[in-house]
Amino acid sequence: PAAAAARPAQVLIIDAGHGGEDGGASSQSGLAESGVNLDIALRLRALAVLCGVEPVMTRTAQEIGYPPDAGTTAKRKAADQHAREALINSYPDGVLISIHQNCFPDPRPSGCQVLYAASDGSRELGELTHANLCAALCPDNRRVAAPAAEDIYLMRTARCTAILVECGFLSN
Predict the structure, then answer these.
(1) Mapping DSSP to helix (H, G, I), strand (E, B) and coil, where does residue 132 land?
(2) Handedness of CA 77, 79, 80, 81 (dihedral sign)
(3) Rounded CA gap, 2 and 98, in Å?
(4) How do residues 46-79 score in pLDDT, each as one tens digit?
């Protein structure tokens, strides 16, 4: 009761993957992943607010402010990732949803897939999110929720519950 009231509420952190100089994957027509991710993330934010949750966004625009000493694209991308990591890890009770689009040379794969971090609660959230997305949007999807690869920076460094949602394939 009193201890529960003093505990801070969980914070929903929405990450629109890529952005700025990092456009991510692109479709055959040149549609950049970063813009699609931002559009979905802003819609997710609107839904969260409608449900009474005020989320934290890692970005709300396509442009990203880079530090003046980040003189190369690689340094700017690294600076952006470190800034996102710091923001995410500043919320110990955070729940991170990182929005992305898949790209694959084989045109056959389609549908969503959720990857989850090793942090507490991530697997459960990832499996639940994946099941709900598939049930609502792509019931024939044979992909399964899976652990995020070690090279996915935010999934590796987030200390909170964290998932990455590959919403679909820009490549097909």
Answers:
(1) helix
(2) positive
(3) 33
(4) 999 999 999 999 999 999 999 999 999 999 999 9
How far CA 131 is from CA of 116, 117, 135, 144, in Å, comes to 13, 17, 6, 8
Dihedral angle computed from the Cα positions of residues 21, 167, 151 and 98, in that order, rounded to the nearest 10 degrees: 70
Tokens of 160: 């909170």
Which residue do the tokens 């003093």 mark?
Answer: 6
Question: How many CA within 13 A on the CB side of residue 110?
Answer: 7
In 29-162, which ranges are continuous DSSP H helix?
Answer: 33-50, 73-89, 122-137, 153-157
Query: Residue 143: exposed, middle, or buried by beta-carbon count in 10 A (0-12, 13-18, 19+)?
Result: middle
